[in-house]
Amino acid sequence: MKSVLCKASLLCAVLAVCGAFAADHPDEVPFKEGEAPPPAKPGEAWCLVTKPSTYKTVTEQVLIRPATFFMESVPAKFETKEEKIQVAPETKRAVVVPAKYKVEKYQQIVKEESVRYEIIPAEYQTVDEMVVVRPGGEQMTAAQPKYKTVTEQILVSPARTYWKKVSPGTKCDKTEANGDCYCLCEVPAKYVTISKQIPDGDLAPQKIVAEPQTKCVKIRKMVRPAEVKKITVPAEFITMEREVIETPAVVSYETVPAKWETIQKEVQVEPETKRKVDIPAKYETATRQVLDQPSRMVWRKIKCDCGDIVKKYKEIPGTDEASLLKLSK
What ranges do the domains of the chain cover? Predict the structure, then answer.
């Protein structure tokens, strides 16, 4: 019976929710999901309640405009100064010194050097020369030889050519550089007819030593051949006068100094600059409600009266015999 009363007191604690908010200073235990309520004594009840969130009023500085800056132009500074400027640069002026001339003599060629040829004829002389009329030797002749006289042509002067000076217009002329004409003429060979005896008839051979027979004849013999002599005709000059430069013309330069003037002008002493101007941030004081403690579930201990439950439900729920037997198992 004692265990039944304990279970009834626990049930009473669960059902006495209405009285949980009547206590002025109730005891509270944090709710943990899946855990049983804290231990209770008879006449005590633990109620699971939700404590609402609590808020508090705070005062804070609110930024309504962030800090910034802008660049301010600082104008340049000028001063009036005197300055010497060049209005005409330094120049050079050319001065011409004329040339000087003189007269000099010089040789002027009037006829170029030339070459002429002169024919020197060959030289001949008449000389006596022994010619063999009949050669000597051994010969077989008859005992009484018979001879006959024959004639023979003997060359005494060979054919030759020579140059002969002729007047222009001759058919066989040769014009030289200086206007002389020469003709190549031919001299025929000259022969002398001689008589000599030769054996006549067929005689019994007889060895006879015959002395050679000679004859003195006059012949024309060349002692110096003709030749062509080359003669150089010198050039002809005349003396002339001409004007030549003794001292050439020259150009000298004179320096013309530069020209200067003094002027006044505005001179920049300080350039235009930029200056940074800071704009501080702007704040305002604002009051607002902030969450102090969020809502949470807690076990709250209260005192309860089981008689009120019996009056309402005619019995304590769960105290019937079947339920008690079920709980006891």
Answer: 2-52+295-328, 114-233
